[in-house]
Amino acid sequence: xxxxxxxxxxxxxxxxxxxxxxxxxxxxxxGDYEDITEAWTxxxxxxxxxxxxxxxxxxxxxxxxxxxxxVKDAEARGLVGDARAQRLAQARAEAAGPYExxxxxxxxxxxxxxxxxxKRSVWRIAILDDQGxxxxxxxxxxxxxxxxxxxxxxxxxxxxxxxYVVRFARTAALLGPSAKQIRLRMSGERGGVQVSWQSP
Length: 200
Fold this sequence. Notes:
Elements: H1 3-14, H2 33-39, E1 41-47, E2 52-60, H3 63-76, H4 81-95, E3 99-107, E4 123-128, E5 134-135, E6 139-142, H5 147-153, E7 162-168, E8 181-188, E9 191-198
Antiparallel strand pairs: 1-2, 2-3, 3-7, 4-5, 4-8, 6-7, 8-9
Helix pairs in contact: 3-4
């Protein structure tokens, strides 16, 4: 399949995905963690000539997601009072730091699952802002927590996927009142995949 056709397929697929509020605002109320994680997760697949080449699931850690995750964590740990407030304050401080996206990547050839090698990786990761400007990551770190822990936090994490945390500098306003969409592109010699988060 030609690369242009591949991106067209994903663009059509993304049109049916839930729209999300691309805002920096901390939510006044917190919704269900699983529902919010699903709303902020995007998936795409690149198929080669004979088999699937790469499968990508990406969860954008928006303020809405961080708030829901902090509440889930506080409840799981039985935090109340000041301890619970401190956990929520920590999540709010993290939301003000670099943009973070959790990637769950599955490759047909395990040697190609090497995003943590940075510029030596066979893949290139970039975010595109509303104007189409590419923003390269500050870092890509392999998430080495146990699979059961990762799956409890990110249901899209599969049996054969490798988890990464990708951080981007806040030099571009990806979130804000005028933000329309955020696109994440993963590309290499074999082609590429692209996912997007769009505002209502």
